[in-house]
């Protein structure tokens, strides 16, 4: 896993964008991480993964969302 960035969500959670490989597929993951009782940041069930080849489509969609 290669961490690309962390974005605060609130005082206890953050979004993490990573680049991973899973079963031979190059993926971008956007996941919510939370501070567990032991102080470690752990992923929860929220998030999305998509193939790196789809990144231009997601970038276009995010640009449209920002302009809206």
What is the total tally of β strands?
Answer: 4
Assign the CATH architecture: Roll
Total tally of structural domains: 1
By CATH, the superfamily comes out as: Transcriptional Coactivator Pc4, Chain A
**N-end to C-end Cα span:** 33 Å
CATH class identity? Mainly Beta
Number of helices: 1
**What low-confidence regions span 5 or more consecutive residues with pLDDT below 50?**
none
Helix content: 10-25%
Strand content: over 45%
Order of helices and strands: EEEEH
Secondary-structure content class: alpha+beta
Using only C-alpha atoms, the radius of gyration works out to 14 Å
Strand order of the largest sheet: 1-2-3-4
Largest sheet: 4 strands, antiparallel
Organism: Ruegeria atlantica
GO biological process, one term: regulation of DNA-templated transcription
GO molecular function, one term: DNA binding
Domain Transcriptional coactivator p15 (PC4) C-terminal: 10-60
